[in-house]
Known about the structure:
Elements: E1 2-6, E2 9-13, H1 39-58, H2 64-91, E3 98-104, E4 107-109, E5 112-115, E6 120-125, E7 134-135, H3 142-146, E8 156-161, E9 165-178, E10 181-191, E11 217-220, H4 228-234, E12 240-243, E13 246-248, E14 252-254, E15 260-263, E16 269-272, E17 279-284, E18 289-297, E19 302-307, E20 310-320, E21 325-330, E22 333-338, E23 341-343, E24 348-353, E25 360-363, E26 366-368, E27 372-377, E28 383-386, E29 389-391, E30 395-400, E31 413-416, E32 419-421, H5 432-435, E33 442-445, E34 451-453, E35 456-458, E36 463-468, E37 470-471, E38 475-476, E39 482-484, E40 487-489, E41 494-498, E42 507-509, E43 512-513, E44 516-517, H6 521-524, H7 539-552, H8 587-590, E45 613-614, E46 617-618, H9 623-652, H10 659-671, H11 675-683, H12 690-714
Parallel strand pairs: 1-8, 3-6, 5-10, 11-12, 12-15, 13-16, 14-17, 15-18, 16-18, 17-19, 18-20, 19-21, 20-22, 20-23, 21-24, 22-25, 23-26, 24-27, 25-28, 26-29, 27-30, 28-31, 29-32, 30-33, 31-34, 32-35, 33-36, 34-39, 35-40, 36-41, 39-42, 40-43, 41-44
Antiparallel strand pairs: 1-2, 3-4, 6-8, 7-9, 9-10, 37-38, 45-46
Amino acid sequence: MTSVVGGTGVVVVDNPLVEGLDGAQAETSTTRPISRLFFLIVISSSQSENFCTPILERSGPNDRSEKHYCLRMRRNLFILSLFLLAALTASCSGTEGVIEIEMLDNTFVPEDLAIAVGETVRFTNAGRNPHNAIAVDGSWSTTDAFGNIVMEDGDATDITFDRPGVYTYFCSFHATPTADGYAGMIGTITVGDASAEAAPAEASPGQASDAAASGVTLMVPGDGYLTIQSAVDAAKPGDMILIAGGVYKEQVNVTTDRLIIRGEDRNTVIIDGEFLRENGINIVGANGVAVENLTVRNATGNGVFWNGVVGYRGSYLTSIDNWVYGIYAFDSTDGLLEHSYASGSYDAGFYIGQCDPCNAVVKNVHAEYNGLGFSGTNASVNLYLINSEYNNNIAGVVPNTLDSETLPPVHDVIVAGNYIHDNGELNAPTGKLEWSGYGSGIILAGSVNSQIHNNLVINNAGSGIGIVPMIDVNFWPSQGNVVEDNIVLGSGRADLMLGGPLESGSCFSNNTAETKIPSLLTVLHSCNGLNVNMAFGLAGTSDLLGRVAQAQNGVGTDLEHGDAQKPGPQEQMPGGKDAPVRTATNLFLTTNIETLATPAFVEGTAINDRNLVISGVSLGSGFWPLFFGAILHWIPRLVWGLGALWALLKLRQRDELRPLTRWISIAIVTLVPVLGVMFFALFGWKEKPVGWRVGRVLGYTGVWLVLVIAGLLIGKVV
């Protein structure tokens, strides 16, 4: 069904095509394209006819071999093309005549849209979290059009605007009411010639003031404030809310700049979401807010959350069992997260997302028993992850690129001076995407020009330090990253790992490590010498795809919200309630980024043995990683190795070849993986007819592609 915004509000027009859905959905669509690589098969099918035409024309009535193989090749490729087109068609739906707004995580794209009267807008959830869109004036909503307040990833619904006006709207899950309207995930649609001045005023991140604290302290409980929220509502910019020990069963929403929210005791001042409320402390559009010396637990979403701010600080915080993120800054700059602890979040204990430049430092923090210790999606430039400990998570530190947030790709991140160990913890909660990084200490996924140095990375169940591309709606190769001066030992799969395809410029030097993928990693990808691009190299990436397929098919941990191991008492903020009062302004320029030395390796620490790994593929990872490892790495390597041996034997029998031609042919088949053998089979194997050669090469390639595509589809990777 489609909603129409007109003079009498929202009119729901029934669509007979969606009858039987019990009103739960309306005009939904999923627009996740399969890789453009698959179109090559379709192109090959059409071109094979042109290739075979001259063969058919010159063949005599009794010359059946070339005709037979050409016709069979053409038929098989045509059938394969139809199969691929059907898969592509099933995964997409048309959008002709419809203007799309993507609901990314915490952002509408575009945020401001101008359309003509009568045009239709399609709201599509392209993020990983639930979203919706609701007009501030109540005239329309995706809830009415879609039939449900929750739109999950891939859901879409259409709304037609038949009345001029300016419609400001918000996501009820990721926006907060303010005195001037809403702040957070908001957008505006201007229909027709209506003046934008008619739109309600919205809070703006603006610029953080460097004004000092006001010197005013509001006591909770005390001074008439029985809840933290009542004190926050009464506070003026620069005031401090000082909270006495106790369990506060509330969500605290902050929209006032430069507040300091401080607990008297980190371990006894507890904001408890009771597994009911989305956030512990929700700071939206309020610049320069500092939260310190308290515990937040049991929120269904996030523990402490800054959204769309300039200036934020979290000091001496404890986050326990906040289900999505523990301590979280989104679309925010000029930040400092320090001396804090996070556990029990299925996504990440610490998270910074969608900022460029971030101008942020995460230091002296500890994350354990989370999906990811730290996750930074599309968080780039002047982001320092330093001097911290990440252990017993599904994966440790994961700067990454995703299309579900703006500002891709992630780039220019510094990961240094950290102690990262024993990740690959099966007693930690996890989501599907987080499981894909299982066992990694540090993994750069779709990263450009980031640096990893002076870290101690030991006893992680997968790869100690890995660099891989990221596959989302788009393909994001990793490029130009530097891995130097780390100690990496005891990794289950490989201490150092580089994965393709299309990786270029990343390098490894001066690391203490025993196992590598590929085995010649430090020779072929050195920061101080030879550094060749990795056009293929799917040994590293195959495990990532396999883990995604595992998660999509129910493999992973099954911990429920609140089941993760609990920490003991945490360190108090020096000075406690009497510590100097500081707002969160101009933090990045004034934060001392200490000398980033490698953490000391404790003599006598037991180092784990490596798992059974054959040619870069771990045999103990389960069916899907083994399947993709075999299809994407073992088979191409076998084709290259055995094919090169066969080609060399054939070349040895070609006495008529000139020496230069012979040596060029030898170089091609031995130095160019797979493609060199295919080239020789097509142009150097003169014993067989052209059609026979083309049929064999394209036929076997087609079978391999079908296996790859079938794995991606059956494994629900795409």
